[in-house]
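Module 6 notes. Inverse folding takes a fixed backbone as the condition and produces residue identities as the prediction. Think of it as a translation problem where the source language is geometry and the target language is the twenty amino acids. Below is one complete input and output pair. Work through it position by position during the lab.
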């Protein structure tokens, strides 16, 4: 019994210290944003489709040894909000994207800002996020300024443990 308790305590300590996490995952971010005119073409939403907001899930991967950025996985769900819930009427529409990402410097107001750029080789579908701190990123317009949300949703994503 004593050894089982010791193993449990050691495992909990390791999980809290991050040792049991996948070293290939740089970060897992979630957020909700409005379905603005900028977001629609980037996420290839059909023209004229009714949409109130988008839920985002972004996983950034890295080389486990060098820690260099490798690939990303983006999952989005969008649609019309279901009243009194955080979901969508009819379940919404899901889309997924994958590609490469990189780290660059510079936002519109801060040339030293760290920016995570998705699909850097494809300018027509590049998404850029400025790193606000270790746990928060914010989506940028193509001119590298912060996207502005509305009273209900922002373009700020939070890092979570998957």
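Target side of the pair, the amino acids:
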């Amino acid at each position: 019994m004593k050894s089982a308790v010791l193993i449990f305590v050691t495992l909990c300590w390791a999980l809290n210290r991050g040792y049991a996490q996948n070293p290939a995952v740089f970060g897992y971010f979630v957020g909700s944003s409005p379905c603005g005119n900028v977001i629609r073409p980037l996420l290839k939403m059909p023209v004229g489709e009714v949409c109130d907001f988008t839920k985002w899930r972004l996983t950034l991967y890295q080389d486990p040894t060098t820690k260099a950025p490798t690939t990303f996985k983006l999952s989005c769900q969008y649609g019309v909000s279901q009243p009194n819930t955080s979901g969508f009427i009819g379940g919404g529409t899901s889309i997924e994207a994958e590609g490469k990402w990189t780290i660059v410097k510079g936002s519109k107001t801060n040339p030293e800002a760290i920016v995570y750029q998705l699909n850097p080789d494809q300018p027509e579908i590049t998404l850029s996020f400025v790193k606000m701190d270790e746990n928060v990123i914010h989506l940028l317009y193509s001119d590298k300024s912060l996207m502005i949300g509305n009273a209900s949703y922002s373009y700020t994503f939070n890092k979570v443990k998957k």
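Reference fact for the lab report: Strands lie at 25-34, 53-62, 69-79, 93-105, 114-118, 127-133, 136-140, 156-159.
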